Structure formats: C-alpha cells, structure tokens
Amino acid sequence: MKFDISSNLRISSEDISRLFTMDAVNRELGPLIRMTVPRAWADKPIAEWPTGRVLFSSWILLFGVLPVDRHTFFFQRIHPQQGFLEASSSLANAVWRHQREITRSGAFCRVTDTVEFQPRLPFLGRVLAPVYRFVFRHRHQVLRSHYDVGDG
After folding, report:
1. How do residues 78-91 score in pLDDT, each as one tens digit?
2. What's the sign of the alpha-carbon dihedral 133, 102, 141, 98?
3. 106 falls in which pLDDT band (50, 70, 90)?
4. Would you call 148 helix, strand, or coil by DSSP?
5. What residues contact 108, with CB distance under 8 A and at least 6 apart?
6. Strands 148-149, 33-35: parallel, antiparallel or unpaired by DSSP?
7. Which of 31, 57, 82, 135 is the most exposed place for a label (fewest CB within 10 A)?
C-alpha cells in the first residue's frame, strides 16, 4: 500500500534543518501521536544519524500515552536539505518506507512524503491505510500552519 502528500512551504534552509529532529517529528504528529526516542538520539539531529543500520525502537503512543505500535528505525539515506529515505519496520508492519523529499524553488520548498507499508496481517491494510493517510494529512497541516503556504 502506498500514498503520498505534498505541501509548498515558505521555509528557509535553516528551518528545513529544524525539521530533522525528533522534536519536529513529534510536533508534526502531535497531539494525535508521539514517538518515544532514547535520550542518546533525542538531541541529535536526524541529519547526523547513521544510515544502513538499525538505530533504535520507538513506541508509537496514541495521544501521547497509549502504546499502539513499536517502530524500529532504519534509514537508507539522509540529506539535511533534500530529505531522507527511511526503511523501517514495526510490530504492525513488516515494511515501512517513508521518503521525505524536499525540493527548493525560490522562496518555497515542496515537501513530499511518500509512505509505503506492508502490514504483517493482510487485513490490517484496509484498517491502517486511512489512519496513516489521516496522520500524514495532519502532519502537513501542521507544517503549513508553521510556514506560509505557497500555491500548489
């Protein structure tokens, strides 16, 4: 199962770098979801995380308190101004691929999130797909609320 969502944002290079933190991830997800992060990784910008190996596991907490999944982080590539490709897994999903592409055009950036997932139990796809789409639409709404929206 796969979907994508894009937003045009008026965002500086410095602000793009600020998107690459777990605080920023949780700000985008909140208040719906919060992801836990070990202290050793919490203060380290995602752009400095290593690629090509499992990093840590994170609890996915509904409304910041109720554990609903356990996500294991693995990044294939990270570029602080262009995005990342995460190829992780979780208790619910054998495959979780999240690609964030950032393309600059003048004062604007187009941020595109592409999510592909394969649930461990096939019937879960019909349940999880609308939930994941909702969460990523929410993430982009939060991004647009923090940065002026461009046309498109």
Report:
1. 998 899 999 999 99
2. positive
3. confident
4. strand
5. 8, 9, 10, 11, 150
6. unpaired
7. 31
| Helix (H) or strand (E) run with residue 103 in it | strand 93-105
Are 40 and 32 in contact by the 8 Å Cβ rule? The answer is no
Tokens of 98: 């999240």
Task: Give the DSSP letter string of 44-101.
Answer: S-GGGS-SSSEEEEEEEEETTTEEEEEEEEEEEEEETTTEEEEEEEESSEEEEEEEEE
- Read off the pTM: 0.93
Tokens coding 50: 């290593």
Q: What is the mean pLDDT of the chain?
A: 93
Which tokens sit at 114?
A: 């592409």
